[in-house]
């Protein structure tokens, strides 16, 4: 592999207002390294960090301006990394920048359009396509998705995510084995055999991340997310496995604490984020210094996790995302500065390991033990004395870590000592029988349930009933309020009917038919042309289960309120739009499927005609007694060229159908996610309403109690419309 520095790229997010021009310029004339110049506006330049400079220039490998498409980002930035991962090297791509500068958009993609899909889905698509092409090796792909929040790791693919808060989830911890390899305890690895399965995992993790987020805890700006594709390949019959990892990292917002001016919990978070970004920088700087023997990987969770994928024998790429508006100038400059420091790393300067004498001794001790074992085996010496307490404990530890190790290739090595081997078997047997006896009842949820079922006292029952009564009262009040508003709206609509360009979404094209309270279940589950394998369905149903789980608890009144809430929510427009696109794609897929079948039949017919023609020609040759045909048969030639044409057509249509299948899957997942989000925002709104009613405030100024949700400008607009409606 070519030795190189860490690649740094810049991407400028499109600005909403056009008057931001003149704040920066991109100079691409300098062929080798383009540069980005940030120009300080006059009013800012005076007092800017005690510095009279009016412009700053930064060099990048490439700079992607506002109009750059996701496709170009993938082709230029991610594809080369994916290629090196396929070749067996580790790789990391991370997005760095202040909140809202486009990190998530770049790494994962936009929430609405298929064309906005980001580096992760495109990379998955590319990798699976390449794996399919290469039949010389056996490939296995696993996915993990880790979130680091306040220096604690959480598994975004943990099924318990849906039922617990972040704090209750088991934390992912970093373990180091004697060979200094990093292992992440409590981080699940999921095998993905197809692009769709991998995509489902991505969306599952993203939905879990969203669920855990509350207005108070905007985890997405304060946490780092690492989506990792683990690839292993083996030649058939060979014992050597080649492994490579690709980390796709969406870092926390890089804004500085001083600027956010916050206290308490927020400050702790900011400290952690800044600290971990600071440690990332330290590691990067250390890697860039020649002859450094100590790389401070252990200082933070993130650098520990990325340890074998920063510098060294791997490709590391950073994307500096910039939101170049006047108020963001200083943050943008600091992002660019960070990028310049990152660019200093050279792979030849790398020392990817820390040398620790303690670990060295451990390793040598292990080797001595192994040699002793081997010697005992060769000399036939049998040991009969019982194993010591410490030896037994050690063995059990080995077995536990072996059982917990997700790696299908992991081995349980106890040496050539029959006593130990016997003990392992006994221990495993014991574990198995224990499991049979206690079996599935060990699941955490059923334990809770059991406790609940231990006959509730009448007092409890009474309390419950009272609560339900209170809930119903609230419901009625909320609904009455909504009804009033609806009535008002209807009147307004009547008055201003000349202005009406409204969308009659409710009755005709509501994404969820009103007569169907389980509307969320009515998702089309698969394209008519595709058969999804069971594991995909399993992931999706896990997503859906969460939603239906919530729905089942909904009373009728609440469901009705949900319908109205939904209709006024900006996200339903997205859902509706995507639903229309989906419909089109489905019918396109269907007719493509038909054309493909037609083409296949035609190919069959042409082949048959060619054979017949051939047989005829040979028969003719025999009857005319000319063994060698004088000239090529023009008829056969024509048939052959028709056949070739048809084959090409078939292939093109087939590829298109395959791409459609992925697009359909992606759109469905986007819709699922939007629906979960909608439900979540409704639940929050509902809870808020109920609380405010309980506090006994007159239920008139309903929306004054509404906590603002993170919303699209569109939905905020709608909400303010609602507010003004109310005040009239
Ligand atoms: P971050 O993850 O850095 O906080 P996001 O990726 O969430 O920022 O971007 C903030 C908003 O800007 C999102 O609504 C996103 O869709 C939009 N956005 C970001 N980058 C682009 C881009 N290149 N083109 C269009 N929209 C973008
Ligand atoms: Mg983000």
From TrEMBL:
Residues 439-460, 487-534, 704-728 are annotated as: Disordered. GO terms for cellular component: microtubule. SMART domains: KISc. Keywords: ATP-binding, Cytoplasm, Cytoskeleton, Microtubule, Motor protein, Nucleotide-binding. The keyword Glycoprotein does not apply. Residues 5-345 form the Kinesin motor domain. It comes from Camelus ferus (Wild bactrian camel). It comes from the Eukaryota. ATP binds at residues 97-104. The gene is KIF6. Pfam families: KIF9, Kinesin. One of its GO terms (biological process) is microtubule-based movement. It is found in: Cytoplasm, Cytoskeleton. InterPro entries: KIF6/9_C, Kinesin-like_fam, Kinesin_motor_CS, Kinesin_motor_dom, Kinesin_motor_dom_sf, P-loop_NTPase. The keyword ATP-binding applies. This is Kinesin-like protein. The lineage of its organism: Eukaryota, Metazoa, Chordata, Craniata, Vertebrata. One of its GO terms (molecular function) is microtubule binding. Belongs to the TRAFAC class myosin-kinesin ATPase superfamily. Kinesin family.
């Amino acid at each position: 592999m070519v030795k190189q520095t860490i690649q740094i790229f810049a991407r400028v997010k499109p600005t909403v207002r056009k008057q931001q021009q003149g704040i920066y310029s991109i100079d691409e004339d300098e062929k080798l390294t383009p540069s980005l110049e940030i120009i300080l506006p006059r009013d800012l330049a005076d007092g800017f960090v005690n510095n009279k400079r009016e412009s700053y220039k930064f060099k990048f490998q490439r700079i992607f301006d506002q109009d750059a498409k996701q496709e170009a980002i993938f082709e230029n930035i991610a594809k080369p990394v994916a290629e090196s991962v396929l070749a067996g090297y580790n790789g990391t791509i991370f997005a760095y920048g202040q909140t809202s500068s486009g990190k998530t958009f770049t790494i994962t993609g936009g929430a609405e359009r298929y064309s906005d899909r980001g580096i992760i889905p495109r990379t998955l698509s590319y990798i699976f396509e390449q794996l399919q092409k290469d039949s010389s090796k056996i490939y296995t792909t696993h996915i993990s998705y880790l979130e680091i929040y306040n220096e604690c790791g959480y598994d975004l693919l943990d099924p318990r995510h849906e039922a617990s808060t972040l704090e209750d989830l088991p934390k992912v911890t970093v373990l180091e084995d004697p060979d200094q390899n990093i292992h992440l305890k409590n981080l699940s690895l999921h095998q993905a055999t197809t692009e769709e399965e991998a995509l489902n995992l991505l969306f599952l993790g993203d939905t879990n991340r969203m669920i855990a987020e509350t207005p108070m805890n905007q985890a997405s700006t304060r946490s780092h997310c690492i989506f990792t594709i683990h690839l292993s390949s083996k030649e058939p019959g060979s014992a050597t496995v080649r492994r490579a990892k690709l980390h796709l990292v969406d870092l926390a917002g890089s804004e500085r604490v001083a600027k956010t001016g916050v206290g308490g919990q927020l400050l702790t978070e900011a400290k952690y984020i800044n600290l971990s970004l600071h440690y990332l920088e330290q590691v990067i700087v250390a890697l860039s210094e020649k002859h450094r023997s100590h790389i401070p990987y252990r200082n933070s969770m993130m650098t520990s996790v990325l340890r074998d994928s920063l510098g060294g024998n791997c490709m590391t790429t950073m994307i500096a995302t910039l939101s170049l508006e006047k108020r963001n100038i200083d943050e943008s400059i600091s992002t660019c500065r960070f990028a310049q420091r990152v660019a200093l790393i050279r792979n030849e300067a790398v020392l990817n390991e820390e040398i620790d004498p303690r670990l060295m001794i451990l390793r040598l001790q292990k080797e001595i033990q192994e040699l002793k074992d081997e010697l005992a085996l060769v000399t036939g010496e049998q040991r009969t004395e019982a194993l010591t307490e410490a030896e037994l404990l050690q063995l059990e530890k080995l077995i536990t870590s072996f059982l917990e190790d997700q790696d299908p290739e992991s081995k349980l090595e106890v040496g050539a000592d029959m006593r130990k081997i016997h003990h392992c078997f006994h221990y495993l047997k014991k574990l198995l029988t224990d499991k049979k006896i206690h079996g599935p009842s060990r699941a955490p949820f059923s334990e809770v349930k059991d406790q609940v079922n231990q006959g509730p006292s009448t007092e409890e029952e009474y309390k419950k009933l009272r609560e339900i009564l209170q809930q119903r009262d609230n419901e009625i009040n909320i609904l009455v309020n909504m009804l009033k508003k609806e009535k008002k709206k209807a009147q307004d609509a009547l008055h201003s009917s000349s202005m009406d360009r409204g969308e009659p979404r409710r009755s005709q094209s509501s994404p969820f038919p009103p007569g169907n309270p389980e509307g969320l279940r009515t998702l089309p589950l698969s394209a008519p042309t595709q058969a999804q394998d069971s594991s995909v369905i399993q992931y999706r149903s896990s997503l859906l289960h969460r939603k239906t789980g919530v729905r089942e608890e909904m009373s009728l009144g609440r469901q009705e309120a949900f319908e109205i809430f939904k209709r006024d929510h900006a996200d339903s427009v997205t859902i509706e739009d995507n639903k229309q696109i989906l419909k089109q794609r489905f019918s396109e897929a269907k007719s493509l499927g038909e054309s493909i079948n037609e083409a296949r039949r035609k190919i069959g017919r042409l082949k048959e005609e060619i054979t017949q023609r051939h047989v005829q020609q040979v028969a003719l040759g025999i009857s005319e007694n000319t063994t060698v045909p004088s000239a090529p048969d023009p008829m056969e030639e024509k048939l052959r060229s028709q056949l070739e044409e048809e084959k090409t057509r078939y292939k093109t249509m087939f590829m298109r159908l395959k791409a459609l299948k992925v697009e359909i899957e992606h759109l469905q997942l986007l819709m699922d996610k939007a629906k979960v989000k909608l439900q979540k925002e409704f639940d929050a709104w509902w809870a808020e309403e109920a609380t405010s009613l309980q506090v006994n405030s007159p239920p008139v100024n309903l929306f004054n109690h509404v906590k603002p949700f993170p919303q699209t400008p569109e939905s905020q607009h709608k909400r303010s419309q609602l507010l003004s409606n109310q005040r009239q």
